[in-house]
């Protein structure tokens, strides 16, 4: 059994926020669970070419813009899933951080971060 508390996990700076990785590849579960903070007012162009991701918002708000340009409001109690390696923009509201619980499959190594200077940032 694996038991971890947020206070026991090191945060990884991912570019526009902080990600605490509760489960990683070394845990052998086949997926990663994170507690991710998206800093207020940030716009992150993201794409996961090698991972599928689902995110559940537990605090704050913002929006995700899909590759077709459609905007979807994200607020506490909303889940979005990137089931086709979808390029997207994740935008936190200007007045508060957005907090997400995210799941990646396959599992992340654990120290990945984004290069937000690229058109879309991704983990290799």
From TrEMBL:
Its EC number is 4.2.1.108. It is an enzyme of class 4 (lyase). Gene3D superfamilies: Jelly Rolls. InterPro entries: Ectoine_synth (IPR010462), RmlC-like_jellyroll (IPR014710), RmlC_Cupin_sf (IPR011051). Pathway: Amine and polyamine biosynthesis; ectoine biosynthesis; L-ectoine from L-aspartate 4-semialdehyde: step 3/3. GO terms for molecular function: ectoine synthase activity. One of its GO terms (biological process) is ectoine biosynthetic process. Keywords: Lyase. It catalyses: (2S)-4-acetamido-2-aminobutanoate = L-ectoine + H2O. Pfam families: Ectoine_synth. Belongs to the ectoine synthase family. This is L-ectoine synthase. It comes from Amycolatopsis balhimycina DSM 5908.
């Amino acid at each position: 059994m694996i038991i971890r508390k947020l206070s026991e996990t090191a945060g990884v700076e991912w570019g526009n926020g902080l990600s605490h990785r509760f489960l990683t590849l070394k845990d052998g579960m086949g997926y990663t669970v994170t507690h991710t903070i998206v800093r207020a007012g940030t716009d992150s162009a993201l794409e996961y070419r090698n991972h599928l991701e689902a995110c559940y918002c537990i605090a704050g708000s913002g929006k995700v813009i899909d590759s077709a340009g459609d905007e979807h409001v994200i607020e506490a109690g909303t889940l979005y899933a990137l089931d086709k390696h979808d390029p997207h923009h994740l935008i936190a509201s200007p007045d508060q951080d957005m907090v997400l619980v995210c799941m990646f499959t396959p599992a992340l190594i654990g120290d990945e971060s984004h290069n937000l200077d690229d058109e879309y940032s991704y983990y290799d």
